[in-house]
Amino acid sequence: MNFFDAFYTWFMGLGTEYGVNPIIFGAIYVGAIPFFTLSLAWLVRNLKQKKPAVLPALLTGFFFISAYLYLIIAGRNVPYWVYLFIALLVGFGAWSTIRKIGKQISKTENTDEL
């Protein structure tokens, strides 16, 4: 068995293991790579420039787990770390939003006092 046969067997076995179409899973997995790379570069740039990094961080995480989101929706036997990572992304997004709202409220209150 050569490399390509072994790869094909492994790749098609993903469909059986997770109960999904391996072509769709693979397309999402490979298709997300450029978006992940771009959002990661955006995140790093924003961090270096001390700009807000919430949106690029959330997008980077989303593209990192996008194929596994497909598994959650359409498949089975999803690794537990995927659920944990999704919970962390949602928690981070909520925390960031609450913090931003708090800053806006305090800014408005300070303006009202003047």
Give keywords:
114 residues; single chain; mainly alpha
Can you describe this structure?
This protein has 114 residues and is mostly helical. The protein has one domain. Helices cover 86% and strands 0% of the residues. It has helices spanning 3-18, 22-48, 54-74, 80-113. Helix 1 (3-18) crosses helix 2 (22-48) and helix 3 (54-74) packs antiparallel against helix 4. The longest helix has 34 residues, at 80-113. It is elongated and about 70 Å long. The termini are far apart. 11% of the residues are buried. The model has no long low-confidence stretch (mean pLDDT 84).
Quick overview of this protein structure:
The protein has about 110 residues and is mainly α.
Largest sheet: none
Helix content: over 70%
Strand content: under 5%
Record field, number of beta strands = 0
Write the SSE topology.
Blueprint: H1 3-18, H2 22-48, H3 54-74, H4 80-113
Helix pairs in contact: 1-2, 2-3, 3-4
